[in-house]
């Protein structure tokens, strides 16, 4: 085993076979969060996370094959503290509450602040694109899909439109994030929520 495959002597944390050691996992995620806060996504590396966490690089690579995978794990952990399923009772109110919480997370969390860097890297890296498309998006839109599904059950929108409206919503937010327009713009958020909540298609009786 090479020197790079080992954590600093005396403070190495191990795994438990194929299972994750909770102490090691927590140490890695904490180190990754701190590194993001200090150096952003450009300075984020598994080598440095391993050094700070006292964990072996093979262990980290087994759990998170790329730095994009590790970033997604930190993003998920951080987002849970900022953004919850609002359950306001109607689609417009749910979207407003969720969007304002999401924008706060993107502004104030280390992972949220560097998220656009992952999107940018995904344009030139197959590994980052796979992490974004196959791991990040399915998990991140789960709560949103539930919000739209509840609205369909209440009859606010057509069930057949859920996926299209979900994509419209994500597109609006990602455009705002990528162009750095995620200040607490209540008027813009209210307008978006009103338009999406009112976008019920006209369907002829069969």
3D structure, described in words:
Helix content is 66%, strand content 0%. It has 2 domains: 3-63, Arc Repressor Mutant, subunit A (Orthogonal Bundle), CATH 1.10.10.60; 74-197, Orthogonal Bundle (Tetracycline Repressor, domain 2), CATH 1.10.357.10. It is built from 11 helices and no strands. The chain has helices at 22-39, 46-53, 57-63, 67-82, 91-108, 110-113, 115-122, 126-140, 142-153, 162-178, 186-197. The longest helix is centred in the N-terminal third of the chain and has 18 residues, at 22-39. The protein is elongated. It has 206 residues and is an all-alpha fold.
Keywords:
2 domains; mainly alpha; Homeodomain-like_sf; 11 helices; elongated; TetR/AcrR family transcriptional regulator; Arc Repressor Mutant, subunit A; 206 residues; Tetracycline Repressor, domain 2
Q: Helix and strand string, N-terminal first?
A: HHHHHHHHHHH
What is the mean pLDDT?
87
> Do you know the CATH architecture of the largest domain?
Orthogonal Bundle
User: What count of helical segments does DSSP give?
Assistant: 11
- The overall number of domains is 2
Helix content: 55-70%
**What percent strand?**
under 5%
Structural class: mainly alpha
Query: Tell me about the biggest sheet?
Result: none
**Cα distance spanning the termini:** 68 Å
CATH class placement of the largest domain: Mainly Alpha
Overall spatial form: elongated
- Let me know the CATH homologous superfamily of the largest domain: Tetracycline Repressor, domain 2
């Amino acid at each position: 085993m090479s020197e790079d495959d080992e954590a600093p002597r005396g403070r190495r944390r191990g795994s438990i076979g194929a299972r994750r050691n909770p102490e090691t996992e927590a140490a890695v995620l904490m180190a990754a969060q701190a590194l993001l806060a200090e150096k952003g996504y450009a300075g984020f590396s598994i080598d440095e996370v391993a050094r700070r966490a006292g964990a072996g690089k093979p262990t980290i690579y087994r759990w998170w094959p790329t730095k994009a995978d590790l970033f997604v794990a930190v993003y998920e952990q951080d987002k849970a503290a900022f953004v919850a399923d609002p359950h306001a009772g109607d689609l417009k109110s749910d979207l407003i509450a969720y969007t304002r919480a999401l924008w706060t997370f993107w502004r104030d969390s280390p992972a949220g602040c560097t998220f656009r860097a992952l999107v940018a890297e995904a344009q030139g890296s197959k590994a980052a694109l796979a992490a974004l498309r196959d791991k990040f998006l399915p998990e991140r839109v789960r709560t949103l899909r539930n919000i739209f599904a509840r609205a369909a059950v209440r009859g606010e929108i057509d069930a057949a439109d859920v996926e299209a409206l979900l994509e419209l919503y994500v597109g609006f937010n990602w455009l705002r994030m990528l162009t750095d327009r995620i200040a607490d713009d209540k008027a813009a958020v209210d307008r978006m929520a009103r338009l999406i909540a009112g976008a019920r298609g006209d369907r002829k009786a069969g």
